[in-house]
Sequence to fold (111 residues):
Amino acid sequence: MPKFDSNGLVTAVAVEHGTGALLMLAHMNAEAVAKTLETGFAYFYSRSRGRLWMKGESSGHVLKIVEIRVDCDQDALELRVEAAGPACHTMAPSCFYRRITAEGALERIGD
Fold:
């Protein structure tokens, strides 16, 4: 099992298994990890809502788990997934759809 922080959370990044594209970052607690392993779909812990949630529970844009990797310190997870639709709630394919320019402004990058 990963090493959870003092809040009982571990950082998790979802990566498209076929392309290696970074899709999203979220947090998981022990229950989310267990539910993900049990169902084969990504579950996370919402810090703002204070509850467990399944990615795509309302949109249908679920993340099917291919494998879960743990980093060398065991304090971060990489979820290798097959995404059923856009990963971001904004409907962008990835939550990382903007970059910071040299002037400090946000700039949208290709979908």
About this structure: The CA atoms of residues 35 and 41 lie 8 Å apart. Helices lie at 30-39. The beta strands are 10-16, 22-28, 43-46, 51-54, 63-70, 76-83, 98-100, 106-108. The two ends are 34 Å apart (CA to CA).
